[in-house]
Amino acid sequence: MTYCVALKLNAGIVFASDSRTNAGVDQIASFKKMRSFNKPGDRTVIILSSGNLSITQNAINLLEQWGRNHDRRNIWNVDSMFDIAQLLGECLREVREHDGAFLAQNNVDAGANFLVGGQIRGERMRLFLVYAEGNFIEAGDETPFFQIGETKYGKPILDRVIRPTTPLIEALKCVLVSFDSTMRSNLSVGLPIDIACYNNDSLDINFQQHITQDDPYFSQISKRWSDGLRGVFASLPNPEWLGEIETSAIESQGLNEQ
Q: What distance in Å separates the CA atoms of residue 208 and residue 218, rounded to the nearest whole number?
C-alpha cells in the first residue's frame, strides 16, 4: 500500500507521496511514486501513483515512450492537461489489458491509480485523479485535493484545513501532518516522503524535497502535533451530564457495599 496526495490551491499545487510498497515483519521495500515531466516555460506535469507497482511503472514508461514519438499525440505536444490525463488513462488501459489476465491467474491485483497535475502554457493549472479503468475526474473549488492509496487516516486534517485560499506553506504543513497521522496508524505507509510544489503560472517545478527518517523538521512536526493533540484533549470540558453519572455511580457503589 502507499499514500499520495495532491492539493490544488489558488496559489499552486502541492504534491506528496510516500515510498513504501511492501511492509511486513521482516520486509520493507521502497520505490519512488512521483514522476515529473518538466519543460520550463512550456509545461510542468507531475504524476503520483498507487497500486500494483509493475502496472504503474509500465504505464508511465509507456507514456515516456510515446513522448519520444513525434508523429503521435504525446505528453510534450498536446495542448491541455485534460489531454495528458487522457493519455495516461490510455497507457494504463493498454498495460492492464496486456498484463491483467496473467496477474489474475495468480490472484495478483492489477489495480492502479494516478494523480496528475500541473500546467501547460496558455491553459489554467489543473489536477486530475485517474482511476484504474483509465477514466478520470478533475479537482475543483469544492474538492481541492485528491488522495490515492491509504487515504482514510490522513483525510480528517485535510478536510478541516484545506481550502482553495490556503497558502502553499500552510498546505505543506497540513500535508506533513496528514502523512504523520497515516504512518502512525498504518504500517504500509512510511518514509521517505517526496514533496513537490508548483506555483501557479510559473511553468516550472518551484520546490522539491525528499524527507527521510532523520529529517529534523518532519520529526519536529510529528512531535508538536502529537503534543498539541494531547494538550487540546486534556483541555476539553467534561460533559455537563458527567456529574450526574458520577453521582449515580457513587450511590450505587455505596448501596452495594452495604
A: 15
Burial degree of 123 (CB within 10 A; 0-12, 13-18, 19+): middle
Nearest-CA neighbor of 178 among 163, 187, 189, 168? 189
What are the structural domain ranges in the chain? 3-213
The position carrying cell 475526474 is: 137
pLDDT band at 27 (very low <50, low <70, confident <90, very high): low
Task: Name the CATH code of domain 3-213 (choices 2.70.70.10, 3.10.490.10, 3.40.50.300, 3.60.20.10).
Answer: 3.60.20.10
pLDDT (0 to 100) of residue 187:
82
Nearest alpha-carbon partner for 126 in 13, 3, 257, 250: 13
pLDDT at 51: 93
Average pLDDT value for residue range 104-115 = 93
pLDDT of 256 over the 60 cut: no
What SS3 class is residue 203? coil
Summarize the confidence of residues 69-97 as an average pLDDT: 97
Question: What is each CA distance from 8 to 14, 49, 201, in whole angstroms?
Answer: 7, 17, 13
- Exposed / middle / buried, residue 139 (Cβ in 10 Å: 0-12, 13-18, 19+): buried
Model confidence band, residue 199 (pLDDT cutoffs 50, 70, 90): very high
Q: Provide Rg for the chain, Cα atoms.
A: 23
Residue 255 has pLDDT above 50, yes or no: no
Return the bridge partners of 29, or none.
Answer: 22
Residues in CB range of 20: below 8 A, 6 or more apart: 1, 2, 28, 29, 30, 188, 189, 190, 191
